[in-house]
Amino acid sequence: MTSPATQITDHAERALETLLSQFSRSPHIRALTEIIGDEIQALEDWMYLQYAAMILDTAVGVQLDQLGAKVGSVTRLGRTDAEFRRIIEVVIAAKQSDGGADQIIDIATRLFGATAQYIKEGTARFRLDYESSETLEQQFLDEAIRILGFAIPGGVQWIVQAVDSQADEGARFGRDTFGDARFGTIIGGEGY
């Protein structure tokens, strides 16, 4: 990864330092050099603002909304900048994922704010149980499921089942409605 650009904030001073000795005492040349340096500084300041707006760590507000749209049509859904930035980071991780169990667990944990357990069922099936610390709204669940889909390998069928916190283990895997959306199961593989 490349390091972020560093803004130069003293173009006029740098320009004056580069004047040849025979011109460094001329007030007209010094003034002209300062004017050019100030113009270059204004351009640098504007360009750096544009650059910073497109970096996830420094983007805010509408800039962050634009980044969300670019990485995967992610919408703010009333989130703060910090919360939305986290979701964008998760989308990027999901899109870079090769579908490994550890990556799917990490993505689900970050999405649902949950603890998650990946259970391999045979060679082509898996189950991911999650328990969130808060009830998730349907709109957020829909988006989280779409984002998780970026990480699950192509051709693997999967579903999400949310369950009531009161449900026993047997009922837990038979529901596909969103009751108490703090608990759920993501099932994937052949036959789903």
Key terms for this structure?
192 residues, alpha+beta, 7 helices, 4 strands
How far from one another are the termini?
A: 39 Å
Order of helix and strand elements from N to C terminus: HHHHHEEHEHE
Estimated share of beta-strand residues? 5-15%
Largest sheet: 4 strands, antiparallel
Please give a structural write-up.
The protein is α+β, with helices and mostly antiparallel strands. It has three domains: 11-53; 60-96, no CATH class; 99-189, Gyrase A, domain 2. It is built from seven helices and four strands; from the N terminus they run αααααββαβαβ. Strands 1-2-4-3 form a four-stranded antiparallel sheet, with helices on one face. Helix 5 (101-112) packs antiparallel against helix 6. The radius of gyration is 26 Å and the shape is elongated. Mean pLDDT is 75; it is low at 164-182.
